[in-house]
Design goal:
Length: 174
């Protein structure tokens, strides 16, 4: 009976850890994506709509907003290829796109953008968070922890970075 109780408690603990882990990752991504989109919503951009048959009006508007954000950020990077903020934000948008479409090419594009931004500015918060989140997506939990710790040296108390620490810690059994 004692072993059965222990096994039940361990199963419960594992389930709770997984739920918290998923919720933490979802929070980090939604916060970052909303921040990037809200910031760039003020930028006039070319018309870019993606209308997919059967989409709800809200989904269609979300796709249009994302497309406008991507176009605006790409335009910024055309004008200034060393724009660290645009590199990091575009990487976050691509990371979100990778998760929503399950297309691996967006992970690769996001990784490249984060690396470029961090070469220019090793303290870029969006790219540090994005790199940690990307590592979580790839189930590289030790790598995610390293990105979060690196970011926390510059941004102690950063909620997105702390979210990565929690998620990675849970997955590593800490």
């Amino acid at each position: 009976a004692v072993n059965s109780r222990r096994t039940t408690q361990e199963n419960w603990r594992t389930t709770v850890q997984r739920v918290v882990s998923v919720m933490g990752a979802a929070f980090v991504l939604s916060t970052l994506a909303a921040s990037a989109w809200a910031h760039d919503a003020k930028i006039p951009s070319a018309h870019a709509s993606v209308i997919v048959s059967g989409q709800s009006e809200d989904a269609r508007r979300g796709n249009e907003a994302r497309d406008r954000t991507i176009l605006a950020l790409k335009q910024r990077l055309t004008e200034d290829p060393k724009n660290v903020a645009a590199l990091g934000r575009l990487g976050l948008v691509y990371l979100d796109e990778a998760r929503s479409t399950e297309e691996a090419r967006f992970y690769t594009q996001a990784e490249s953008l984060f690396a470029s931004a961090l070469r220019l500015d090793p303290t870029d918060l969006a790219s540090l968070v994005g790199s940690g989140s990307l590592a979580l997506s790839r189930h590289d939990f030790r790598g995610a922890m390293k990105w979060a710790e690196r970011g926390l040296e510059q941004y102690p108390g950063s909620a997105p970075l702390l979210g990565i620490v929690v998620d990675a810690s849970v997955e590593l059994g800490r």
